[in-house]
Structure formats: C-alpha cells, structure tokens
Amino acid sequence: MFFKKSNRVQNTIDTLIGVGTRVEGNIHFSGGLRVDGTVIGTVAEPNDQPSTLILSELGRIEGAITASKMVVNGTVVGPVKATQFIELQTKARVTGDVYYNTLEMHTGAVIEGKLVYLDDNAE
C-alpha cells in the first residue's frame, strides 16, 4: 500500500510511559510518545508541532486523545482525534468516537463509537 510521506509514523520515541506506570492528569507532548502503561486524563500535542502517539497492546488511555499521527494497539476510553493518520492494529479497542483524516484498520480492531472523517483543513 502506498502512503503519502506525511502519513509515515516517526520512529523516534521522546517519551515513554512504561508497563506498570499509571499517570493521572493531562499530558501535553511533542515528538514521539509511547504508552505501555495507563494514562487517566487528556493526551494532546501542541497545535503547531505534529507529533506521534503509539499505544501498545498493554497500554490504556482513559480520556480524550489528540495527535497528528497515531498507532493504537491498546485500549482507549474516550474520543480520539488524529489530524493526519491513525492505524488501529489488531488488539485496538476504542470506546468513543474516532476523528480521522487517513485511517488504517486491521482485522480484530474494535471501535465502539462513530467514525468521523476530517478533511485536510481540520485543526
């Protein structure tokens, strides 16, 4: 499958929330964020800096998520907004609406909510 260059997920992880770690509160990040633990709160990037969120199979986020690019293979309880690209891998479980520009969904991924397409002018 061919993707625009902008849809490639960055390989650099600047911040890691490890397995067994639980964070309660809002997280504002830039660059690459990987979540293997649990976050209870909003996870968002600054509007002027495109960033990548990776949620592993063991990861869980309870709250709204906003990022340019996302790879989800864990559990999300809350709305998800990916302004450029989102990949929902086999173990992904999303309870909430998913706002996307480009979506890749693997067999086995589950969404309990609406899929809402964002056009290229979405913020």
From TrEMBL:
<dbReference type="InterPro" id="IPR007607">
    <property type="entry name" value="BacA/B"/>
</dbReference>
<comment type="similarity">
    <text>Belongs to the bactofilin family.</text>
</comment>
<dbReference type="Pfam" id="PF04519">
    <property type="entry name" value="Bactofilin"/>
</dbReference>
<protein>
    <recommendedName>
        <fullName>Cell shape determination protein CcmA</fullName>
    </recommendedName>
</protein>
